Amino acid sequence: MPGMGTPELPVPDGLVLRPFRGVRFAVADPAAVTSPPYDLISEGDVQALLDSHPNNVVRLILPRPPADHSPAERYGAARDALRAWLVEGVLVRDEVPALYVYEQSAPGMLQRGLIGDVGLAAPEQRIVLPHENVMPGPVADRLALMSTTRANLEPILLLYNGDDPNARGRASTLVDEVATARPPLVSTVTADGVRHSLWAITDPAEIGQINADLRPRRALIADGHHRYATYRELQRQEHARRTNPSNGSGPWDFGLALLVDSDAYPPDLKAIHRVIPGLPLEAAAERAKGSWQVADFTDLRAGLTALEHATEPAFLLAGAGTCHLLTSPDPAQLAEAMPAERSARWNALNTSILTEFVLPRVWDMQDDERDVRIVHHDALAAADLAAATGGTAVILNALAVEEVLAVAAEGERVPRKSTSFGPKPRTGLVLRTFDID
Fold first, then answer.
1. Which residues are bridge partners to 189 per DSSP?
2. Spatial distance between the Cα atoms of 202 and 187, rounded to a whole number of angstroms
3. Measuring CA to CA, how many Å separate 215 from each of 116, 140, 240, 250, 318?
4. Does the N-terminal peptide bond of residue 423 adopt cis geometry, omega within 30 degrees of 0?
5. Beta-bridge mates of residue 432
6. Pfam families, per this entry (predicted)?
C-alpha cells in the first residue's frame, strides 16, 4: 500500500547524468570562495578559508555556530546563509539546465570530467558501484545538512571506463572538444596552484549523445561514499513521506556528481594512514613480533623507503623515536584471522589484513572512529600525530587502482578509509539546490 513499509524507489535504466541549473558564486575571485571537500578540512583550515572570503563555501558545508547549538540549529545557519546569498546575488542560478565540463590542471596534472545529476541506484543494480563501507555518524551529519539546506553543496567523484572495443566513448571525446575549443564560464587558480575551469553544455543533442554513451556503463564511487549513502537515505525519506508520490522523479532521486573517464584520465590513488593514540609505539612493535617479522629503523625516511619496496602485506609503525617495519606475517595466524566468506582478492588487501588481523588479533582493538584516527596521504604527518599523542602510526602503501576496481566489480567493499582517489573536485564551483531542478 502507498505510504506503508519500505517505499519503492525509481530504478534508473542505466548510468544517467541529468543536466541541472547550477548555482554559482558571482564574486571577483572565484578561488577565494572555494574549499577542499568537507572531510579534508581541519578546524584550523575552516578559519583560514573564512579569512580568505566572508562568503567562502565552508560556511555552508561546515557551519560554525556556538558549540551548544544542536545539529538542526547548526545546519539551519547554513540554510539561512545559502538563502541570503541567493537573494543578495552572491550566488546566482544559471538560466538553462546544463551538464558542466570541469577541468583541473597544473604542471604534471590534468583531469577533465562532467558534473551533473547522477541517477541514484542501489548497489545491487550494479550501476553505481561503492567500494568502501560507510559509518553511520558521517551519513547522519550529511543528511542533516542536505535535508535542511535542500541542496547538494559538493559533488562526489565517480570513475567510469570510457573505452569501447573500437573507439573512445562520445561523452569523453565531447568533454575534450568543449574544454579545448569553447570559452569557459569560469577559470580560476587556487592557492595550491591548480587551475579550475568550468564550461556548460546546454545543447539537448549533445546531452543526448552523452547519456546514450553513458547508459550501458558502470561507475565506481571514487570519493564520496558517505555523501552517496546520504543521497540514497534522503531519497528513501522523501518517498516514504509522500503518501501519493507522482510517477515522475524528484530532485532527491539524483545527486551531484563529477563523472571522469578513468581511461582518458587515470586517477591518482593514495594511501590513508591510521594513528592509534592509545597504543604506545614500542608496545605495538613488541606485540607484533608474535606474528610478524619486525625490522627496526632509526630513521623514518629509511623506514618509508623500505615499506615502499616491501612485499605486501607490510606496514610501518612510527611515532616518537624509532620506526618498525612489519612484513611476512605468520601464514597460519593470517589464514585463521581472515574471513572465509571473503574472496582471496579481498583477503589479500593490506587494509583488510589491518582490519581483520593486525588490529583485532595483534592489538585487541577495532578499526573504529573512536579509537583510530586517520591521516590522508601524509606519512610524516601521521608519524608526528602519533608522537604528539604518545601513540602509534600505521603507515600503509596505497592500494592499486586495479585491485579496487576488481573488488568492487565482484560486489565486495574494501574496509573503511582504504583509498584516497584524486584529484578531488573543488567545492564551491557549482552547487545544486532542489527547488530549481
1. 195
2. 19
3. 14, 31, 28, 20, 47
4. yes
5. 152
6. DUF1015 (PF06245)
- Over residues 308-343, the pLDDT tens digits come to 999 999 999 999 989 999 999 999 999 999 999 999
To the nearest whole number, what is the mean pLDDT of the chain?
Answer: 92
DSSP line for 325-387: EEES--HHHHHHHS-TTS-HHHHHSHHHHIIIIIIIIISS----TTT-EEEES-HHHHHHHHH
CB within 8 Å of 423: residues ≥ 6 apart:
104, 109, 111, 194, 268
Q: Say whether 268 sits in a helix, a strand or coil.
A: strand
H or E element in which residue 39 lies: none
Q: Are strands 195-201 and 272-276 parallel, antiparallel or unpaired?
A: unpaired
Degrees, nearest 5: CA angle 397-36-32: 145
Q: Please give the single-letter amino acid code of residue 82.
A: L
Q: Quick check: helix, strand or coil at residue 261?
A: strand
pLDDT beyond 80 at 242:
no
Q: Are 313 and 402 in contact (CB under 8 A)?
A: no
Looking at residue 307, its pLDDT comes to: 98
Amino acid at 105: S
- Identify whether the C-beta of residue 387 lies closer than 8 Å to the C-beta of residue 320: yes
- Mean of pLDDT values over 57-69: 80
CA nearest 331: which of 293, 282, 285? 293
For the four alpha carbons of 285, 291, 296 and 300, in that order, the dihedral sign comes to: negative
Q: What are the CA-CA distances from residue 110 to residues 25, 96, 155, 376, 378 (Å)?
A: 24, 28, 18, 21, 22
- pTM, 2 dp: 0.85
Rounded to an integer, what distance in angstroms lies between the CA atom of residue 143 and that of residue 257?
Answer: 16
CA distances from residue 67 to 73, 76, 215 in whole angstroms, order as listed: 10, 14, 46
Residue pLDDT, tens place only, 172-183: 999 999 999 999
Which whole-number Å values give the CA distances from 75 to 47, 82, 84, in the listed order? 18, 10, 14
In whole angstroms, what is the distance from residue 70 CA to residue 100 CA?
A: 36
